[in-house]
Amino acid sequence: MRMKIVKSDGRQIGIGRAVLRYIGLIIPVVVIIITCFVLSIFSPNIAGGILLYIGIPVGPILVFLPLLMIIWDGKKQGLHDKIAGTYVVNIPQLKTLQSVNNNTQISDS
């Protein structure tokens, strides 16, 4: 199965939108790293407990939740796709998406 990342009108994404999509993908990881760093600097004793009892179970959820959004989202978009305004489509579906967009734009509902 071949897939392609496209904009809402079915056209290919540019470098700017690709970078925005990538940033949306790494935001949860960066937030966790910064939080751990700040906690370890300002309160190392408390940080150990927080990271052990809260960070370890909650961290993976925060990392994978934006990707798991794809499962229940009606348009099958993850957080990174919503941020960049992109869709991942099968190559055969691309022609259908383009023909639909000739008549109407994909709505955000």
- Unreliable stretches (pLDDT < 50, length at least 5) are none
Choose one word for the global shape: elongated
Terminal CA distance reads 27 Å
The total beta strand count reads: 2
What does it look like?
- The protein has 109 residues and is mainly alpha-helical.
- The chain has one domain (3-103).
- Helix content is 70%, strand content 9%.
- The chain contains 4 helices and 2 strands, in the order E-H-H-H-E-H.
- It has a two-stranded antiparallel sheet.
- Helix 1 packs antiparallel against helix 2.
- It starts with a strand and ends in a 6-residue tail after the last helix.
- The model has no long low-confidence stretch (mean pLDDT 78).
Q: What's this entry about, in short?
A:
The chain is mostly helical. The chain is built from four helices and two strands; from the N terminus they run E-H-H-H-E-H. Strands 1-2 form a two-stranded antiparallel ribbon.
State the main characteristics.
4 helices, 109 residues, 2 strands, two-stranded antiparallel ribbon, mainly alpha
